Amino acid sequence: MFTLSTAPKLQLTTLPNGIRVVTQQIQGMQSAAVGIRIDSSTRNEEPETGGASHFIEHLLFKGTPSRDADRITDEFNSIGARANAYTSQEEVFYYAVSLASIIPATFDILADMFVNSWLPGDEVEKERGVVLQEILMNQDNPGRFIYNQFHQGFWQGHPLGTPILGTAETIGNISRERLMEHKLGNYLSNATLVSVAGNVEHEQVVEQAARLLAELPTGTPKGRKPSEGYRVAVGQNVHYQRAMEQTHFYMGYPLPPAGNEHRHKLAVLNQILGSGMNSRLFREVRERRGLAYTVYSMMSSYTDSAGLMIYAGTGPERAQEAVDVCHGEVLRFCDEKVSEEMLAAAKEQIRCARLMALDDCETQVRRISNTTSLLGAPEPIELSLEAISAVTAEEVQEVAGLLFQGVVPRVESVGPGEGPGLPR
């Protein structure tokens, strides 16, 4: 049973050069995960270097002065570790999962990549082809395609609207020298966050981080900011015509940035709206009307902006109906209070999901990295669960009215014909 005494121990230390080290000790786990996050990504790129952050993410696995690409892979493999990375709009995150006992060796390889990767010229050219194929793959996949297009449209005119992968033109033209210049100008100490989750000792991680990352250049990356008074582009509709069987669409509503005072109420609202088989969208769109096989809602939160997004894939002849129904379910929160039974079930779903996630060190290392970066400090799970438990039906209705009343969402779709318009 989860109690305050059994809650994971969270600790945060900031090194003299500005690197932050956060650990979540979960005793009894055999595994652990270590991550290195750089708080600089797509939104820090210039137009001509679009996709550089993601390109560099690929290339960090391709060699350092002491390890070539094969040796990096072989060393991870020889100790039973698995490594990966991802790029988002605001960060690039490199991480590895291994037995807790070999986290020091795992961290050593990851840190060497992060600090010393020299982006070998021959690897740049090979990986350029890989990234270009990734761009084409995303174009061919309708779900990925419309997500990317929606994200760029929703945040048009904002650095967050820059495509993560870049374009065929920018990736095709960017040189190794320009990539290296971007890395050296952004992989800086004040933007670096080390996170470790599992059965680990905080002081040992701090000591190793200070030693392995000592050569990281100091400073803070230059960030791009939106114009003063910027607003996301809602109330607009775009359709991309393709010969397909289904119409896939995203629709979105503006939210306050990450760390806002309403975030726990919004987590409950999103759970009720579109998370799982008990959600209103699942029941109304799929179960009662048979409009879609897949329908859900999600929140994308960043340092200075956020959005609530709804996705569905449906038949083209009923796409407008699906958009109208989804919008109606959002506005329903403004017009009526959720029942106490539904509220209690949503809270329990969130509570159980977060507690079960404690068994997954990979999920936890991402969580503590994100909360530390976005909130300024790691958020203890017991405090977040207390905040979720305290949300009332009146508060859910109040925040819905504040954020969604009178708002016409953005709708973007891909599929045959003319596509759906804005909700009616």
From TrEMBL:
GO molecular function, one term: metal ion binding
Record family assignment: Belongs to the peptidase M16 family.
InterPro entries reported in the protein's UniProt record: Metalloenz_LuxS/M16 (IPR011249), MPP/UQCRC_Complex (IPR050361), Pept_M16_N (IPR011765), Peptidase_M16_C (IPR007863)
Entry superkingdom: Bacteria
Domain Peptidase M16 C-terminal positions: 173-349
Protein name: Insulinase family protein
Residue span, Peptidase M16 N-terminal domain: 20-167
One Pfam family cited in the UniProt record for this chain: Peptidase_M16_C
Lineage, uppermost ranks: Bacteria, Pseudomonadati, Thermodesulfobacteriota, Desulfuromonadia, Geobacterales
Record Gene3D superfamilies: Metalloenzyme, LuxS/M16 peptidase-like
